[in-house]
Amino acid sequence: MKNLRGIIVLIVLLLFTVCAGALYADSEMHWSYSGEYGPQNWHKLPGSQANGKKQSPINIPSDAPINENGIKFFYMDSLLNIENNGHTIKVSYERGSYILVEGKKYNLLQFHFHAPSEHTFSGEHFPMETHFVHQSDDGEYAVIGLFLKKGEYNSAYASIWEHFPEEGEKKETDTVINAKTLLPERKSYYRYDGSFTTPPCTEGVKWFVLKDSVELSDDQISQFEKFYKSNNRPIQPFNRRGFYLGGEEQKKDSFLPVFVIIGIVIIAIGIMFFFMQGKKSEKR
């Protein structure tokens, strides 16, 4: 009888553990762009850095410094391996393609899409944005952001658009693509330090947002929006960060102490002047 009770207790404990583990796994993995699991609650997810001070995306002001050169692209051909993961449509890239930037090599892992754009320029969204995700051999990430605007039909994107999978579906195709054909001719960029834009929103990501955009037709944009129309994280505070120019961070507020000191000196001189004038008046 005691053995039977012990077995029952053991079974109950095992069931409880399995159920608790399943619930934990669900809470750990499940997130969305709206509702209870939306961006406002991403900071509650295990390991999340969503409340950090260097989050992405951000608004890029019109006076942000522009890096005219600096990224060297070594993108090779790749078979199209495409997935609809429930959050975006992602293309996984074959090994061998990379960029050289700021003295370091970053391997192209994948690229994916957002609608509307996650970054804004002067407070305005673009219809879409592409993110090219790279990683160095020592684990550092660099992401290139590319704005997509309404315009002419884009044949370079067509080979990808033709293979859009349904949600939860993966496709390994014989179609050959080259990510370099998806980029604009000029590759000047805005550079800042940020994070991934999806949970766990890990910081320490180098962002390179291209200044020039690429055109897609209305139909191409609408085709993506049939799957995802609002898979963009809200704009995050820039806080005390600065944009980079030529590899050096340009912090506007770094000049604030100088102005504060000058202001204090001017006020002090003014006070001394009025004090001395008052003394002269008393002597008279």
TrEMBL record:
Reaction catalysed by this enzyme:
hydrogencarbonate + H(+) = CO2 + H2O
- Which residues does UniProt call coiled coil? none
CDD domains tied to this protein: alpha_CA_prokaryotic_like
The protein's matches in SUPFAM superfamilies, at most eight in alphabetical order, are given as: Carbonic anhydrase
Tell me which UniProt keywords the record has, alphabetically: Lyase, Membrane, Metal-binding, Transmembrane, Transmembrane helix, Zinc
* EC number(s) given by UniProt: 4.2.1.1
Which positions carry the signal peptide feature in this UniProt record? Answer: none
Which InterPro entries does the record associate with it?
Alpha_CA_prokaryot-like, CA_dom, CA_dom_sf, Carbonic_anhydrase_a-class
Transmembrane stretches, start-end: 255-276
**All residue ranges annotated as the Alpha-carbonic anhydrase domain in the record:** 29-247
Q: What class of enzyme is it?
A: lyase
In the record, the note on similarity to other proteins reads: Belongs to the alpha-carbonic anhydrase family.
Q: What is this protein called?
A: carbonic anhydrase
What is the species of this protein? Rarispira pelagica
